[in-house]
Inverse folding.
């Protein structure tokens, strides 16, 4: 068997690299047997590293007698769960990338560990700030911001401005304070301040007044009139006389029989009141779902900001390590440039996350209709809201039984039937009774007071109306059919909503465990990659890839939990009840 020279050379190169890597990693793995600090300085391997083809810039002199500095210990990774304040959106950052030159002061990134004052340098210097000696221990899991330590604000402090108020000063529209609120407080504020719900309640009052108007037909009407008139008369002898007459009358009318028209109009008005009451309930339940989803959007925006901040801090750490290894002679310029790109991308993602956070805050503020000078943030932690104990079939039946939208279509069908009955009654006999009493007096001739009274009954029967009553009846018959069709369409839509929410709830519940495992695995893989990088086994490209995977896993876990909560809220809305437990699932 023949072995080529190229194969032998490749095998020798791989064997030599493995021996060198083990030589580098041995001090890190063995540690100090005396029980001291296990972090060791890495010796420069006895390997001839070829110089890069591209010469360094003139403003950076090559290091002389450089020993590899201490890198970041693996046991102290960048914290991912430290509480992050709610910063305002910074101005658009400008990150200038030049060969071997990084301006870290181009944007103010909240770093979850303190940097000593003596380590901060001016933006014009090329060197990076020194790292602290030690970093606080942390857990790689995602947590939500802690609840505020201060007492929860009173809801009376969120009273909105009057409806006709129009701000004219800058301080009247400026957000002066950001207040954290819970989901329960947000729902209570929506019930108090939401304008859409207020409009629905005012429309209910209007239909109640219309019902009172229809019920007034059961009572008689009393009309009083007074008149003053002048008249001129000629007798047989052509004598002309003038007189002024003052008179008045009182008339009482009552509809005895209306062929069912009066009762039909009253029942139709009662149906409108019932339909509007159901509409108020529908608006309130929809508002509760919208506010709940808006609050979850606020939690997601806050979580994305924390993830972006942690990713930016990780990229900054990778850049510092890449610079340290390059200056020690065991790193490459390619690794450094790659980390610069990762840091720039992380900063851009952070700016986008901060901007989206401000947008979401203003969206929920608009729905809650609070004062212009107050901003809102989420105080509740990000966690699963509860469990659903009913099966899919039971949930569908509960939705059919409780949903106000289905009842609204049935009520609308009854209203149309009563209006059809009233339209047909227009062409049928109408019987009414009346009584009239009148007085009249002459002001010029002094003939005294003359009075008169009249009592009777009146029957009205419209023989020809051009087919108007039948046309109105046909319109209402069509409205009956429309209400029945809408009932069927609403029923199918409700079933689809329940099925979608139920299946989404199941999938997100199953994915929460997987997402948590992915976060833990990605964090452990990143820690291992940093150790292997310090030992010279992995490259900076592997670390960048694992950083991206960790950020993606954190985002997936956040989205899965909040997706579960949104589906749970949709199921709650679908049956107009809250049949889930208060304790989150284990």
């Amino acid at each position: 068997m023949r072995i080529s020279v190229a194969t032998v050379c490749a095998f020798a190169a791989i064997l030599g690299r493995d021996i060198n890597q083990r030589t580098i990693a041995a001090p890190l793995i063995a540690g100090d047997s005396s029980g001291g600090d296990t972090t060791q300085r890495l010796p420069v391997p006895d390997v001839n590293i070829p110089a890069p083809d591209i010469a360094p810039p003139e403003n950076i002199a090559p290091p002389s007698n450089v020993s590899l500095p201490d890198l970041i210990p693996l046991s102290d990774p960048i914290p991912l769960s430290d509480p992050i304040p709610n910063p305002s959106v910074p101005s658009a950052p400008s990150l200038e990338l030049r060969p071997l030159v990084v301006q870290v002061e181009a944007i103010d990134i909240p770093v979850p560990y303190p940097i000593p004052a003596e380590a901060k340098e001016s933006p014009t210097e090329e060197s990076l700030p020194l790292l602290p000696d030690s970093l606080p221990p942390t857990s790689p899991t995602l947590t939500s911001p802690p609840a505020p330590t201060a007492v929860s604000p009173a809801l009376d402090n969120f009273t909105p401005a009057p409806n006709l108020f129009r701000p004219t000063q800058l301080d009247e529209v400026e957000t002066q304070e950001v207040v954290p609120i819970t989901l329960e407080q947000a729902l209570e504020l929506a019930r108090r301040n939401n304008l859409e719900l207020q409009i629905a309640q005012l429309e209910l009052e209007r239909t109640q007044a219309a019902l009172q108007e229809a019920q007034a037909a059961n009572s008689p009407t009393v009309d009083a009139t007074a008149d003053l008139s002048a008249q001129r008369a000629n007798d047989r002898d052509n004598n002309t006389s003038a007189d002024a007459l003052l008179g008045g009358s009182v008339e009482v009318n009552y509809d005895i029989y209306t062929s069912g028209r009066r009762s039909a109009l009253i029942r139709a008005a009662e149906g409108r009141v019932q339909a509007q009451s159901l509409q108020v309930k529908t608006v309130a339940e929809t508002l509760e779902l919208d506010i709940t989803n808006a609050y979850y959007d606020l939690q997601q925006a806050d979580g994305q900001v924390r993830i972006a901040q942690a990713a930016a801090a990780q990229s900054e750490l990778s850049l510092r390590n890449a610079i340290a290894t390059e200056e020690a002679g065991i790193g490459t310029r390619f690794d450094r440039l790659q980390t610069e790109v990762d840091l720039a991308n992380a900063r851009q993602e952070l700016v986008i996350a901060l901007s989206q956070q401000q947008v979401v805050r203003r969206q929920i503020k608009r729905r809650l209709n609070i004062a212009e000078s107050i901003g809102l943030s989420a105080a509740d932690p990000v966690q699963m809201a509860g469990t659903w104990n009913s099966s899919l079939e039971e949930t569908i039946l509960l939705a059919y039984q409780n949903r106000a939208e289905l009842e609204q279509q049935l009520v609308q069908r009854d209203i149309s039937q009563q209006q059809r009955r009233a339209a047909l009654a227009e062409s049928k006999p109408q019987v009414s009774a009346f009584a009239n009493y009148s007085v009249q007096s002459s002001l010029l001739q002094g003939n005294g007071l003359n009075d008169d009274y009249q009592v009777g009954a009146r029957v009205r029967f419209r023989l020809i109306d051009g087919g108007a009553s039948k046309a109105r009846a046909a319109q209402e018959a069509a409205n009956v059919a429309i209400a029945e069709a809408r009932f069927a369409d609403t029923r199918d839509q409700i079933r689809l909503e329940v099925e979608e929410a139920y299946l989404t709830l199941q999938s997100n519940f199953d994915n929460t465990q997987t997402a948590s495992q992915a976060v833990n695995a990605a964090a452990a893989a990143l820690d291992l990659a940093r150790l292997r990088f310090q030992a010279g086994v992995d490259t900076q490209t592997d670390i960048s890839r694992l950083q991206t995977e960790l950020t993606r896993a954190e985002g997936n876990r956040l989205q899965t939990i909040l997706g579960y909560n949104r589906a749970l809220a949709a199921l709650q809305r679908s049956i107009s009840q809250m049949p889930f437990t208060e304790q989150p699932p284990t």
